[in-house]
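Hi there,

I know you've been waiting on this one. I reran it after we fixed the sequence typo, so this is the corrected version. Both the input and the resulting structure follow.
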Amino acid sequence: MFLEAITLTQTTPCLAEPGKIIVTGKPSGPLDDVLPYLATLPGVIGFNPETLTLTLRRQPGFITIYRQRITITQVKDVTEGLSLLEALKEAINATWEHRHELTPVIKLQRPPRPLDLYAILPQTNCIQCGEATCMAFAVNLLMGKTSLDRCLPLHTNPAYIERRAALEALL
């Protein structure tokens, strides 16, 4: 077992989602050795091997894992926070157990920015997705407030098949 526990150390109000909290936890040991393996998991949107910081998307919100601290945003309450920390501990231990099957990430992975997505979107500003512009759609995609299937041109126009695949890979 790599990690014995992640202890809840603090909760703060979540500014991104009023009524929810941010949960901060402290792992029972430093996560330096496991972070490059965790960076191979689905849902990773950013990893910095120099600072050993990993950010994962969760619905809703984000999980950021540092060497000796973990934060989870948009958590309903302390009970859910404790459950998420326990599940994360299990995921960290499972990843460590299977590390020989994984290739650790050693290069910087930065999260996509709204302009990265906008550059790939059809840029028609057709409002069929419910947003006023493709840029607004890109921002909401990154925030997890909408899904790629809401962009009808990506799914109905054969000319956008490669763009859709590129966006799916980024997200």
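Quick highlight: Residues 128 and 152 are 7 Å apart (CA to CA).

Best,
R. S.
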